[in-house]
Design goal:
Blueprint (H helix, E strand, L loop, with lengths): L6 H4 L4 H5 L1 H32 L2 H26 L4 H22 L6 H64 L1 H20 L18 H10 L1 H16 L6 H8 L4 H20 L10 H21 L3 H29 L5 H29 L2 H22 L26
Length: 427
Amino acid sequence: MSLGVGPRRLLIDVSPLREVPAYRRWWLGSLLSGVGAQLTSFAVALQVFRATGSSAAVGLVALMVLVPTLVVGLLGGVVADSTDRRRLVLVTMATQLGVSGVLAAQAFPGASLPLVYGLVGGQAVLVALQSPAQRAMVPALLGTQRLPSGLALAQLSFQVSLVAGPALAGILTAVGGLRLCYLLDAASFLAGLYAVARLPALAPVGAAARRSPAAVLDALRFLRTRPAVGGALLSDFLATALAMPFALFPAVNALHFGGGATTLGLLGSAPAVGGAVAMAVSGGVRHLVRPGRALLVTGGVWGISVAGFGVAPALWGALLCLAVAGAADTLSVVLRGAVVQLSSPDHLRGRMGSLEFVVGAGGPQLGNARAGFVAAVSSPAVSAVSGGLSVVVALGVLGLRCRPLTRPLVGVDGDGRPGRAAAEQGS
């Protein structure tokens, strides 16, 4: 379906915020919690680096997040499909508030680094349990007609937190130290708790999942019946695992742009800025009948932009390529979520959300590892260009081999459009 050219059709659709008060509260709470999470990420990295002077020690923080994400992420979907999702999110949010409080209490010179690593790992476990339930709650709040717009709004709040969080963290650290970042992160959970507490019970519709790791197999069996869903997950994984450029930023900055901290910060924020702009003009996604085909296109744009970053001779060119890459990546996340959530019955949405979560978290980590290794044996430019072009080739092959991904989306009510089956709740 045509997206139209009118400027109003391009602007992000904010009708879910106007029309569904429950979603509006959830969205505002998620925005504040997202900014708070960025405050803690900044504070943990800086605390570890100040204590050790080692980039490897800071890298270990990412490992403490990745392992629980991959191990617990799939099980989180089983829990989300076997219990009241509202209650699960309340419990995990309240526990995260406590973890942030402990982080604030330990933020003093000479603090125990094993304690910091343990707290970060504990938070990762809680996020892995919470995220599938949160993803499954959104269709229940919005219904399938509003879901693409709701996913775009959620992605906009995430991008805003990526832009605003680190800048705010730097100011807060200068004014009140790392402890202030941790305390404000803890306070940010109060908004999320209030929003979720106002919701009704959100038990899965249909048969509850068995509380067993074997219940994950139900989601994998479902993928066999919906190749478009499997293709959407695979396209996102290929794009990030083959061409994640963030590990290249320090080397590219040192080789080509003077190595200054300010320039490095610009490289790091450019994708988030592009993503925020893309979401501001994402109104067309709600009209798409073939989101899978659009997903392949945005993945190709991501790959070409990463390759362009690798050969950009000037800083403005590199920043522009990264901004376009960030815009394409953010649109891909929305399109992937639309395919997965609209195609999944409610009793499986937690487990399907956990597959999304694992793909979305694991692919970038593998991609950064690939980028760093290839750059070490060749050059950052070779790493970026080879990764970006390999994405274009891989997604081209996927589009040819997985034709259901490029066809009109068949929703859970089987009508070939974003479905009408999900219940809508307006308060």
